[in-house]
Design goal:
Length: about 140
Amino acid sequence: MLMRTDPFRELDRMAQQLMGPGTWSKPSVMPMDAYREGDEYVVAFDLPGVSADAIDIDVERNMLTVKAERRPVAKADGVKVELSERPLGVFSRQIVLADTLDTEHIQADYDAGVLTLRIPIAERAKPRKISIGAGSSHKEISG
């Protein structure tokens, strides 16, 4: 079995623990992927363990903001946590959208801890064919 090593993984984990969970005034960054699929852009955010009602999506002008909060799981009396590596708190990501995207028709789906946004390309930004008219009026310049 091949394993990919990341020498900074432990350092990242310790830094996350020292800085504490993200707050509404200083949220942590959430990982994402973005790609084009046909006539729309797709942006996928990893939000495992976050309930759909704890996700907030806003668009203002061309700024897309996604915020989410992962709260600690309620523990029964007498439970002692041995290891806690999953980050808690507030996560946020802002993306500047091109003016060629149709922000009025963004679709959002949340499944298996992945928030997927589909942003269509605006009709005015799609390639179109321009027809050439046959001009019959020729002007002659005389001097």
